[in-house]
Amino acid sequence: MLRFRAPVRIGDRLVLVSKCLRLxxxxxxxxxxxxxxxxxxxxxxxxGVPLTRQPSETPTAGxx
Length: 64
Description:
Strand content: over 45%
Strand order of the largest sheet: 1-4-3-2
Largest sheet: 4 strands, antiparallel
Structural class: mainly beta
Low-confidence stretches: none
Oligomer: single chain
């Protein structure tokens, strides 16, 4: 779920703060908040799946 509280405009410095809620083998859950100055502009719960890169794979331009 993602909830916006205020707009983020071009030139604003957006600071992301996250907290790990659960780490499981197949799924990780995080709570993420975005701040512009002292104002929270959004908050979200993010679910991710860990990926592993094979040693033979090399990153292409734009990947890290």
